[in-house]
């Protein structure tokens, strides 16, 4: 198959030498990863729906942060909005009834897409995955006899559930990861799973795919944990953009997702897929508009609505929710397995190439966090760059330099401190040194403390692939990384921005 320049190279790729190097690299890539040819429909999709990427010469490599929205998705949603009269779903008017019908159709589509039988499961609309996780955390019947088991590899939106457990004096434990692959330590996990208290409620929460290392943790854990007395909440936010989650097959109690991570649009809508029985066992800490069948001021009483309605606070995002059904249809048309194959091939190629790059003195440039192959891992690659003497290059400066080449990547700890701490070998003492700096600790100060103590990093660079990625994106990052050969902190220059509380602060902003 011959592939045109447009399909493989973003516009703005400099120089004919780079061009022919890239063509040669692309040919070698296709020979090494012949499955990639089965994903050609994604090249057509990119050409029709993501023209802006090539028009702007943009290599987008943060699909774990957010997927990108397709032009046709936005058009279909806009046309739906322009053709309908949609009102607040909480009443019986025609405008309300139309909105309700679209919301309920989308709920059914979600259950269908995730193979969740509506007899056993329902979908609760939330603002995002975080809100879905919080819904469970705040309402879970933790008791001093009960337990919360988390994995080191978890997003902070899962780590935060421990605060609810602490308040109820439940026991909180963490299952560690192995190094360097950052997979769950199965022996230790089994020991911890054996500690469920049969006379209390026990909650186990883990990610189906790591947003730090890309590791896919086994879905068979759900059955293993449930058989030992745990309720299981699967954080599927980073998994579902490139994998099908078959709910009826894995039987989780709860699953949290954000839809913009799957197809870029709409933001502000996620869901909690919940086993009906497990949802009924939750104890909501409050009620609100939309969640009650009855509430009285003088009677000081309320009756929570049954099923998902008791968990959907206030007015749903009824204008955006229909766009979720359109996004799921888009994934069905493209084929989630096709996306998965493409992401696997690009990830495999980039992993191999990055690990080959050496400084002139023979030392590696890249340190990878997580598996070096695509076995049981998705398309997120976490790494740091080092100079010829083995000194860490500041990932914030790397991000800045990548930006000048219109490469969008992600740096920091990706809201997953436990995976980062394990990856860098940060100890409890290292972390306590940071925490002891008090309430004024910020990420830059913490980086200084850690580097001063141990020369370690407290963050990394992440590149990730998704539904609109192509070889040109992977190649441009590889070339950028190779350009760091023989560079030092001095030659790279200083960063010109700061990051506080996960927000980038630039001069004047
Ligand atoms: C694994 C994982 N869980 C949870 C979240 C939180 O998602 P959101 O910010 O959409 O609530 C993310 C976001 O990056 C994630 O990657």
Description:
- The chain has 509 residues and is of the alpha/beta class.
- The protein is built from 22 helices and 17 strands.
- It has a seven-stranded mixed beta sheet with strand order 2-8-7-6-5-3-4, sandwiched between helices. The protein has a four-stranded antiparallel beta sheet with strand order 11-12-15-14, with helices on both faces. It has a two-stranded parallel sheet with strand order 1-13.
- α6 runs parallel beside α15, α7 packs parallel to α9 and α19 crosses α20.
- The longest helix is centred in the last third of the chain and has 21 residues.
- It is globular, with a radius of gyration of 24 Å.
- The termini are far apart.
- The N terminus and C terminus are likely disordered.
Summarize the structure.
With 509 residues, the protein is of the alpha/beta class. It contains 22 helices and 17 strands.
Q: Which residues form runs of ≥5 with pLDDT under 50?
A: 1-16, 503-509
Please state the CA-atom Rg, rounded to the nearest Å.
24 Å
SS strand fraction:
15-25%
Helix content: 40-55%
Bound molecules: pyridoxal-5'-phosphate
Shape: globular
How many helical elements?
Answer: 22
Q: How does the helix and strand content classify structurally?
A: alpha/beta
Q: Numbering strands along the chain, what is their spatial order in the largest sheet?
A: 2-8-7-6-5-3-4
Counted beta strands: 17
Major sheet: size, sense and barrel closure? 7 strands, mixed
What is the terminal separation in angstroms? 48 Å
Mean residue pLDDT: 92
């Amino acid at each position: 198959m011959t592939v045109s320049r447009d399909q493989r190279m973003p516009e703005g790729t400099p120089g004919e030498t780079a061009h022919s190097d890239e063509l040669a690299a692309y040919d070698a890539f296709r020979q090494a990863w012949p499955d990639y040819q089965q994903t050609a429909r994604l090249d057509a999709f990119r050409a029709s729906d993501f023209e802006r990427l090539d028009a702007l010469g943009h290599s987008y490599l943060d699909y774990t942060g957010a997927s990108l929205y397709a032009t046709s998705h936005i058009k279909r949603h806009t046309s739906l909005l322009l053709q309908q009269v949609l009102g607040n779903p909480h009443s019986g008017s025609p405008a309300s009834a139309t909105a309700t019908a679209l919301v309920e159709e989308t709920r059914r589509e979600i259950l269908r897409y995730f193979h969740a039988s509506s007899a056993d499961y329902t979908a609760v609309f939330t603002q995002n995955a975080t809100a879905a996780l919080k819904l469970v955390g705040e309402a879970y019947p933790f008791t001093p006899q009960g337990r919360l088991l988390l994995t080191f590899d978890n997003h902070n939106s899962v780590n935060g559930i421990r605060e609810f457990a602490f308040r109820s004096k439940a026991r909180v434990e963490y299952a560690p990861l192995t190094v360097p692959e950052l997979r769950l330590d199965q022996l230790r996990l089994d020991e911890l799973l054996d500690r469920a208290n049969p006379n209390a409620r026990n909650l186990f929460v883990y990610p189906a795919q790591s947003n730090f290392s890309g590791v896919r943790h086994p879905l068979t854990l759900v059955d293993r944990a449930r058989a030992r007395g745990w309720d299981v909440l699967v954080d599927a936010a980073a998994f579902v953009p490139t994998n099908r989650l078959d709910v009826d097959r894995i039987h989780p109690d709860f699953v949290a997702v954000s839809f913009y991570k799957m197809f870029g649009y709409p933001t502000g809508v996620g869901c909690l897929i919940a086993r009906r029985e497990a949802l009924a066992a939750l104890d909501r800490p409050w009620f609100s508009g939309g969640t009650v069948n009855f509430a009285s001021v003088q009677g000081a009483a309320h009756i929570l609505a049954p099923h998902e309605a008791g968990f959907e606070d206030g007015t749903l995002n009824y204008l955006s929710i229909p766009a979720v059904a359109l996004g799921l249809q888009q994934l069905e048309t493209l084929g989630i397995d096709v996306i998965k194959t493409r992401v696997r091939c690009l990830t495999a190629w980039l992993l191999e190439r990055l690990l080959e790059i050496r400084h002139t003195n023979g030392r590696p440039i890249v340190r990878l966090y997580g598996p070096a192959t695509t076995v049981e891992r998705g398309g997120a690659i976490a790494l740091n760059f080092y100079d010829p003497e083995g000194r860490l290059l500041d990932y914030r400066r790397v991000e800045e330099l990548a930006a000048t080449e219109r490469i969008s990547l992600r740096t920091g700890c990706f809201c997953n401190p436990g995976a980062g701490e394990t990856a860098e070998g940060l100890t409890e003492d290292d972390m306590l040194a940071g925490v002891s700096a008090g309430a004024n600790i910020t990420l830059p100060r913490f980086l200084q403390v850690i580097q001063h103590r141990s020369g370690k990093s407290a963050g990394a660079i992440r590149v990730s692939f998704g539904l609109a990625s192509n070889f040109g994106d992977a190649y441009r990052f590889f070339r950028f990384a190779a350009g760091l050969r023989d560079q030092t902190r001095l030659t790279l220059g200083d960063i010109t921005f700061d990051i506080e509380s996960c927000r980038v602060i630039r001069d004047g902003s």
